[in-house]
Amino acid sequence: MQTLNFWQKLYIPEILRGMWTTTRHFWANVLGNRHTVTQQYPEQPTYVDERYRGRHRLMRKEDGAPRCTACMLCATSCPALCIHIEAAEHEDPTVEKYPGSFTIDELRCVFCGLCVEACPCDAIRMDTGIFALAAYDRGNFLYPRNLLLGDDEPINIAEGKTPAE
After folding, report:
1. Residue-wise pLDDT tens for the chain (165 aa)?
2. DSSP, residue by residue, 48-104
3. Per residue in 129-151, pLDDT tens?
4. For residues 9 and 101, what is the distance between their CA atoms, to the nearest angstrom?
5. Which of 60, 75, 77, 86 could form a cystine bridge with 118, CB 3.0-4.6 A?
6. 115 is in an annotated binding site
7. Is position 78 annotated in a ligand binding site?
């Protein structure tokens, strides 16, 4: 173990060095030499990268039917267990099954993207760019199949809407 000399025991040089760093940052901010990172949200929209994992959505086939085949791979790969699927028999004999109910609990979701990677038919995506997930009730965070397909729109409190509107 290295022994400390007299000046190192006093910590005076380190205190002065810390005070110099603080003073330097203070004057840099006062004189405006630094770029501020404040954004006036929601008046100025925030840039969202195209790879950002936002709210989920389900894709449709060309005929308008849900692309999901209820294979349960997304629900199996989800570490938060937030995807709940109930398979149902399709009336078309060429289609084996389809999701009778498909629900995602956004409060449990950790937005890891494993469900998107596990889906063999590219039925689920997280590329909506929606990051302001807000609601008045916890039940509004259970997204059913019709909302994930885009048939319904959730109440967006971030845009100033209330449930009465």
Report:
1. 788 788 777 888 888 999 999 999 898 888 876 666 778 888 888 888 888 888 999 999 998 889 999 999 999 999 999 999 999 998 888 888 999 999 999 999 999 999 999 999 999 999 888 888 888 889 889 999 999 998 776 555 455 554 444
2. --TT---S-EE-B-TTSSB------HHHHH-TT--EEEEEEE-SSTTS-EEEEEEEE
3. 888 888 888 988 999 999 999 87
4. 69
5. 77
6. yes
7. yes
Q: Is 73 buried (19+), middle (13-18) or exposed (0-12) by CB count in 10 A?
A: buried
Starting at the edge strand found earlier in the chain, the sheet holding 83-89 runs 83-89, 97-105, 142-143
User: Any binding-site annotation on 71?
Assistant: yes
Token pair for 27: 């004057």
Domain map (residue ranges) of the chain: 1-34, 57-154
57-154 is classed CATH 3.30.70.3270: yes
Is 121 annotated among the ligand-binding residues? no
Q: Looking at the DSSP assignment, which residues form a beta bridge with residue 143?
A: 104
